[in-house]
Amino acid sequence: MTDYSNIRILPTLTDSLHCLHTIYDRCYDIVFHEFRIGEELDACIVYLHGLADSQLVDQQLLVPLSVSNIWISTAEAIQEELKLSDIQYFSTYAEIISAVSMGAAILVIDGEDRALGISCQKWETRNIEEPSSETVVRGPREGFVESISVNTSMLRRKLRNPDLKLEATSIGKYSQTEIVIAYIEGIIRPSLVSEMMTRLKSIQIDGILESSYIEELIEDNPLSPFPQLLSTERPDIVCASLLEGRIAVLVAGTPFVLIAPGTLAVFLQSPEDYYQRFYVASAIRMLRYIFIGIALLAPSIYIAVVSYHQEMIPTKLLLSMAKSREDIPFPALVEALLMEVTFEALREAGIRLPKQVGAAVSIVGALVIGQAAIASGLVSAPMVMVVAITGIASFMVPHYGAGTAIRLMRFPIMITAGILGLLGVILSILAIIIHLLGLRSFGVPYLTPISPVQPYALLDLIIRAPRWLFNRRPRIASPLNRHRQSPAMKPGVQGQSAHKDDE
């Protein structure tokens, strides 16, 4: 790939067009429209069909300049004649290539060693709709789209303050993907911004097609099964994270925005926890944590108890389970692995199939295969129940990446339980805890606020405390401004004062 960053634009129009034709050789969608400004000045408009709006090119460039009777000889005079505010000057061919790739129309003028770039972008975008993977009963119904300009405008609509900073860069030798980092100045720790920019600038890659490329290249521990950056399609989650002192990374071409730093507690919380009444949200959150534990450990504990610790099972239940397992040819470990792998395959098949039939295939397939497996004597009825409850519990994880990590870890825990019994389960849990204690996300411990302990942040961990108690921001990202609301925010205080005044 030729480096055009040091090749300056030639003042002769013929030479400039020859160079541009060489650059865009065998590119059918490039448009070169030569015309004459006024009566004697030759010029050419260059743009990519499909990225630039040809009607805007005609209205803003061709018509005003073609019918002009004023002698125009300089780029500044042409800008004054066009009366457009969004005009840039380019002096190298690399700048022209970058602008054309972004949908701009380039005006090359004979006798000028500079070109004018006019913003004429127009391409099809998806309508704003609710993200299917992050639905809520109560809350905003809008989600990010693939257009980064639309996404940044959605952030601006929610955070109407110039302290919301949006810094842009591009990554990818061939894709030149536009990347925007968002943060609130005065809240975020400056070292976090500089660290994010350093990691982004260190990426040397051919192309960035999705934000997962960025996530894998900038996270602290890429070999860990646990995600260390939160990815979301919801603008309200991004804005809430920015107000806590975090930083967001928006990538052109994808609706998924990355948020750093990420901690385990963030991945286990739902946006609806903050839109429901606090006691309802607390009850649902505790229920979610219980079922996340079931999703991780239920098959392993069943295997361990059935295989090694039958004395822990009540006698009547043990007799019932022994009766259901007397004709099963496989040990409990093989039985569980067979059912879990089948359930995961059905889940993936439901995701890949069209929406109209995907859910039906998953549900009907699980029922038919489960019933057939019991009738044929391959698996026992209690095992089918355990796998079904485990599958339902895995859907309680609000974040897909964290849910996938729990689903993956379930299998090695099952194997250790089949070999060592409950001792294997305990050793597996200790190994996971030790791994989590060593994880960092942009220098922040992954188990914050549990380790290190932050008493104030515990109000938003197991339960969701009343909103009037959230006077300070959590210290997860060490924000500069710790205060986010007035200390006297408890409801009823103003009403009681007004009642006393009436008396």
Secondary-structure blueprint of this entry?
Layout: H1 13-23, E1 30-37, E2 41-48, H2 54-66, H3 75-82, E3 87-90, H4 93-101, E4 104-109, E5 115-119, H5 148-158, E6 164-171, E7 177-184, H6 190-201, H7 211-218, E8 230-232, H8 235-243, E9 247-251, E10 257-260, H9 264-267, H10 278-308, H11 315-325, H12 332-352, H13 355-376, H14 381-394, H15 400-420, H16 422-438, E11 440-441, E12 444-445, H17 493-502
Antiparallel strand pairs: 1-2, 2-4, 3-5, 4-5, 6-7, 7-9, 8-10, 9-10, 11-12
Helix pairs in contact: 5-8, 10-14, 10-15, 12-13, 12-14, 12-15, 15-16
Q: What does this protein look like?
A:
This protein is an alpha+beta fold. It has 3 domains: 13-119, no CATH class; 148-262, no CATH class; 285-445, no CATH class. Helix content is 46%, strand content 13%. It has 17 helices and 12 strands. The protein has helices at 13-23, 54-66, 75-82, 93-101, 148-158, 190-201, 211-218, 235-243, 264-267, 278-308, 315-325, 332-352, 355-376, 381-394, 400-420, 422-438, 493-502, and strands at 30-37, 41-48, 87-90, 104-109, 115-119, 164-171, 177-184, 230-232, 247-251, 257-260, 440-441, 444-445. The strands form 3 sheets. A 5-stranded antiparallel β-sheet has the order 1-2-4-5-3, with helices on both faces. Strands 6-7-9-10-8 form a 5-stranded antiparallel β-sheet, with helices on both faces. Strands 11-12 form a two-stranded antiparallel sheet. β1 and β2 form a beta hairpin. It is elongated. The termini are far apart. Mean pLDDT is 86; it is low at 497-503.
